[in-house]
Write a structure and sequence with these properties.
There is one protein chain. With 196 residues, the chain is α+β, with helices and mostly antiparallel strands. It contains five helices and five strands; from the N terminus they run H-E-H-E-E-H-E-E-H-H. The termini are far apart. The protein binds iron/sulfur cluster (2 copies). One of its GO terms (cellular component) is plasma membrane. Its EC number is 7.1.1.-. Belongs to the complex I 23 kDa subunit family.
Length: 196
């Protein structure tokens, strides 16, 4: 018995067993760049911009924790046939993302209400000069070609909001959801019936 009460040499045998097991296991090392890695399609490689969807709402720039989205725009008047006055719309002049600051949190992609930002799994855009990691709107637009198509809808999942709306419109006004029921005493009780 060893001084700790175990069988002498047990630790050595255990260690050798681990070594042997590791040596005979198939290596998971990937020989990048000779072999391209198989990344999940939704990997966060680079952010792509679909410029025509961007309304310059500035939500992404405001929510970015690293303040690495730079947007500039101007207003343009658009004549609308039949309208008394021309409408105004924002025109995007600049949309840059500095990938030397970006921490790939994905907040900008999530908060964009107009589906103008997407993740692409493309990650091979290292640069010798850090300044070149600032991608302008043309560069961000080029990444759109590498964005994978959206995953197929789960047949067991809930229908999308658009599908529900389209089905309700197709069914006509009789299929509209019933208005929220009002408690009988709420009409006479301005305080909503709360106990005083
Ligand atoms: S992924 Fe995060 S850090 Fe990068 S630009 Fe978007 S919000 Fe900013
Ligand atoms: S949140 Fe979307 S629509 Fe708004 S400025 Fe950013 S990319 Fe454009």
């Amino acid at each position: 018995m060893s001084e700790h009460g175990g069988v002498p040499g047990a630790g050595l045998v255990k260690g050798l067993a681990v070594t042997l097991k590791t040596m005979t296991r198939r290596s998971t090392t990937q020989q990048y760049p000779d072999v391209a890695p198989e990344l999940p399609p939704r990997s966060r490689g680079v952010i792509a911009l679909l410029e025509e969807n961007c309304t310059v709402c500035m939500l992404c720039a405001r929510e970015c924790p690293d303040w690495c989205i730079y947007i500039d725009s101007h207003k343009e008047e658009v004549a609308v046939p039949g309208a008394a006055r021309p409408r105004q719309r924002n025109v995007l002049d600049k949309f840059d993302i500095d990938f030397s600051l970006c921490m790939y949190c994905g907040i900008c992609v999530e908060v964009c209400p107009f589906d103008a930002l997407y993740w692409s799994p493309e990650f091979e855009y290292a640069e010798y000069d850090i300044k070149d990691l600032l991608h302008d709107k043309d560069h961000l637009g080029e990444w759109m070609a590498t964005v994978p198509p959206p995953p197929a809808h789960d047949p067991l999942g809930d229908p999308s909001k658009e599908e529900t709306t389209a089905a309700r419109k197709a069914a006509g006004p009789s299929a509209r959801p019933a208005p929220a029921r009002v408690r009988p005493d709420a009409a006479t009780d301005p305080g909503g019936g709360a106990a005083s």
